[in-house]
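Reproducibility note. Readers wishing to regenerate the assembly model reported in the main text can use the exact inputs given here. Chain order matters: entities are listed in the order in which they were concatenated for prediction.
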Amino acid sequence: MRILIFNEHKQDKTEAAVRAVYPNFIHNALADVLKDGNTVKTVTLDDENCGITKEILDQTDVLFWWAHIAHHEVPDAVAELVRDAVLGGMGLVVLHSGHMAKPFKLLMGTACTLRWREGSRERIWVTSPGHPIAKGVPEQFELAQEEMYGEYFDIPTPDDIVFMGWFAGGEVFRSGVTFRRGLGKVFYFQPGHETSPTFHHPVIQTILRNAAEWAAPTCRGNILYCSNPAPLETGAE
Amino acid sequence: MRILIFNEHKQDKTEAAVRAVYPNFIHNALADVLKDGNTVKTVTLDDENCGITKEILDQTDVLFWWAHIAHHEVPDAVAELVRDAVLGGMGLVVLHSGHMAKPFKLLMGTACTLRWREGSRERIWVTSPGHPIAKGVPEQFELAQEEMYGEYFDIPTPDDIVFMGWFAGGEVFRSGVTFRRGLGKVFYFQPGHETSPTFHHPVIQTILRNAAEWAAPTCRGNILYCSNPAPLETGAE
Amino acid sequence: MRILIFNEHKQDKTEAAVRAVYPNFIHNALADVLKDGNTVKTVTLDDENCGITKEILDQTDVLFWWAHIAHHEVPDAVAELVRDAVLGGMGLVVLHSGHMAKPFKLLMGTACTLRWREGSRERIWVTSPGHPIAKGVPEQFELAQEEMYGEYFDIPTPDDIVFMGWFAGGEVFRSGVTFRRGLGKVFYFQPGHETSPTFHHPVIQTILRNAAEWAAPTCRGNILYCSNPAPLETGAE
Amino acid sequence: MRILIFNEHKQDKTEAAVRAVYPNFIHNALADVLKDGNTVKTVTLDDENCGITKEILDQTDVLFWWAHIAHHEVPDAVAELVRDAVLGGMGLVVLHSGHMAKPFKLLMGTACTLRWREGSRERIWVTSPGHPIAKGVPEQFELAQEEMYGEYFDIPTPDDIVFMGWFAGGEVFRSGVTFRRGLGKVFYFQPGHETSPTFHHPVIQTILRNAAEWAAPTCRGNILYCSNPAPLETGAE
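Running the prediction on these inputs yields the following structure tokens for the assembly.
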């Protein structure tokens, strides 16, 4: 698979608490998880146009997206390129605070809002044990420190809810949800706060690798047109 | 119910073939169908800002939308007002070529494209006979002349497929589909071409009235925010 | 609405801890909640054939089902009558340990198993705030003492997840889920343990009344046949 | 993959019109389609207990099921074994008149009825072009002679509608539908009438091979129990 990782790359440059967890930056931490058997590239907001063009997306099977405080710095045109690539078959895995990223919001059509609080303990439950993304994942596991994301999560009805999160502070969340959009597949996954070592957790790494495999395209194409064909049935009208 | 009808009001002003079918214009034809027991208002592209403001939508239970050749004349800001009103609970019924209308595309997140051909014969089948929108509708009925809309229809997985269309030219279509978005409900209905007397058909009128009743809000509210509450559980973290 | 309440009526006759909470029995407690504006009847395992016949179900809009330790005492033929009535349009509300009741299992086709533990504290979250069953329900509320029901809950993908449960012991659950089956609607609701005063809780009572209204039939009919009609299109084959 | 094919093997033994199309019987025709790269076994009603035991199903990745006039000859216990194997992860592909087969009806919970007529012309449309089962399938293709199966098809809301059928006689049908049940996946596919050369059609063969691959288990297990675990959270209740 050809995997592209977008990281806004702000807090992991400037904030000590984030550097402590991801000294080699979030995009490289994700690349380390995903590189076995795959071609992995990384881009950030520091790259011109986020390092994203139509040509690059055409050569991408699955795009991972991590972003938090600078969603507004992603140009609308880039977000639209990502949306169109998903509709044309590219897989998209949106991580944590990416729930407010422009491409995800474009693809959902809803506000994608939720409630949140830093510094929570989370327990993740598998709620679709036969789903490919849950392969090799225990029926539940704990993240000692994550950011609480709680319901109501304003998304369309997901095709599948693979994981649900329990938080020590009293909240629940649809933590791993899938959506088909056009020819492409989208997976949103809630864990991954910048000050938590989530992407170093072996079960999380299994989930990320499963998600890449699941989201890879079955076919690519251009359905972004209206066609006006002749009748198939002779003299039918 | 307080119903608002938007009609772009172009072809029914200028084209003889449309005037012949809807001499009193499409919005008024729809208003006639929906007026019993309801407060019905109509707006068009001739009104400033499409006649749509946040205050007006706050006072609207269900918005009907018919448009065809002038989707681009609807300001983005108006489309976003409609989307936000749906997320806040307002019902939306999108008719026929409204599949390419800006508010519908914003709410779907997909291309909403399809194949099409003018002058087809259509047979509509009920595929969710217990659904409120199918109440009183026979198991199938025929429209002697409609525009063919054929698959693949690029929409997210609908919550329900209430109607499916059969076309004499060899095509099929998900002709009546529902979507929950935020607090609001959306119904897309394929029949309603401007040169066909579709909105004069008694079964179509039953469906339109059912759709209004189904789409009416259960509750209204503002979920367009992220909240950051304190833990509910004392000492839980 | 014509509401029928089935209670197996075992523990609320013989166990002091249950009598303390429901001195007038569970079916009567439910009847008290639902009687305003409705015709309510109750039946139990003490009635011949559970008090259920095809004629009685034909006269029932919504059937509530509470049972726990005596699912096996319900004759298969009664379970099949209930299933067929739902397919023909009757609403069904299955409460708590009714997840293992024969009619529910017949309608789901899955094992309907889950994990459980008595004496838990539960917090219920609304996850579909625009759904009619959530009308008037706060965004979350607490039940000081309920039975923990935890994932994985072996059910088909629900049409809607109206409520999700958080348990102090670390579990989550899809606590309020809807399913369309044939012409009928099914709502499963997890709270309602026999030693907890759940059915006395005002929010729970709101939910039960909403569920009855939501599950009431849009239409009734017999779709339990295969038909073999002539072609609709002359000379089409 | 280890594939098991069940064919009731009645009409393809005794009826000349069927023998003419499938001289080597339906199960062997299917085996020929599926044998490349897979271990394929076939069983029929002539085998003791349909040739199906728990041990055999435990060694099966995907079970194909073709049956028509002798559903009642399949013992209930065999149908329950199949259902339980699906809940435990085995894939199930149900063909054509298998819509009334006992294992399918058990897994659906609905009547599974439809309308039908022999000797129709069908056109099949892809309605989920990114789905693995649609891989390599053209956007539409024709079967010159099939049995018409028409809506209303009494099934639960499918997870995906991969194919929709158009019939020259005026009907439409959800011809290829998927369902997750427990750990297993179910695909129902409408074409395959015994007097039509459907299983010799190259596109149909592609679909059957895709279906086998899609339905193969991600994991196998036993979720057919209720567990009663201790709290995960110390002192939580």
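We highlight two features of this model. The two ends of chain A are 47 Å apart (CA to CA). Residues 112 and 155 of chain A are 5 Å apart (CA to CA).
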